[in-house]
Amino acid sequence: MKIAQIAPLAEAVPPKLYGGTERVVSYLTEELVALGHDVTLFASGDSITAATLAPMCRQALRLDKSIGDGNAPVFLMLERVLRRAHEFDILHFHLDYMPFSLFTRQPTPHVTTLHGRLDLPEIWDHYELHSQVPLISISDSQRRPMAWANWARTIHHGLPENLFRPVAGAKPGYLAFLGRISPEKRVDRAIEIAGRAGMKLKIAAKVDRADRDYFEQRIEPLLKLPHVEYIGEIADHQKAEFLSGAHALLFPIDWPEPFGLVMIEAMACGVPVIAFNHGSVSEVMEDGVTGFIVDGMEAAVAAVDRLPLLSREVVRRRFEARFTARRMAEDHVALYERLVRAAHPRMQAIAAE
């Protein structure tokens, strides 16, 4: 198939550091190429891919200090994709509702993966107005605020099978928090859980500009506690060592997490997860197998004592069975083929007019 992947421009594909959506787009794109498909990736010019790269700006917008209006390159990209749409069998967008108005007015089938939260009433009108656009959810729980939308399929994220592996000889010596420091991720809970369990906590996380005040006022003072070590943002090549050295990853979220990529990153390293039961957690985690799903602080602290009951080898095997990028790519190809078959009569009718 000739497939266009249209990525956000905020980060490179893959991102240099943090960037969940762009990371997943990269994993999907590379696996589609490995499966023999002809893929064009519309992304920032500093992206790296085995697909054909169509550079839409010089570098990731987050890194380009010369950009004053971040919307301008994105809308220019949409126009460029539109002018090339006839070259592809299917267009796969990762831009939320932004493409809808343009691309419902042309015949090439297109699909959009929604990567973020949907419990925002101000966005619902877009999906109601463009109710014919097929959507991919990254978990069934993500759909709940918009259960009425035109969902084509849920496709869970996946990682390249050998991207992260357990580090041989690693001796777990702490609990880990990985990802982003923000109110909904609740690193403050992780700090309290580790403290009450009598264990060290290592935090490898970025702080977005929007969360800087929260970090400085609420979290930074907690980093001075003797059991806490703040590492900062880390790259992919550092994650296997960081996670393999942990007894468990703490995922004490306080929001409807659409997926939670860090959970399967930990699983790939054979590391169990202690996660609060919100959003996708009960879909991704297998309670008592790949970690523990908890409903409060007391249960989270108690779960730390139960970690020796879990097999790190089994955690890794469950990752291989459920969350590889190859499985993710094959799921997408099956959906693409179905959408292309359904679109052919419509495309022929438009051509005949």
From TrEMBL:
Domain Glycosyl transferase family residues, every copy: 170-307
Organism of this sequence: Roseicella aerolata
Record-given protein name: Glycosyltransferase family 4 protein
Phylogenetic classification of the source organism: Bacteria, Pseudomonadati, Pseudomonadota, Alphaproteobacteria, Acetobacterales
InterPro entries on file: Glyco_trans_1, Glyco_trans_4-like_N
GO function term, MF aspect, one: glycosyltransferase activity
Positions of the Glycosyltransferase subfamily 4-like N-terminal domain: 18-127
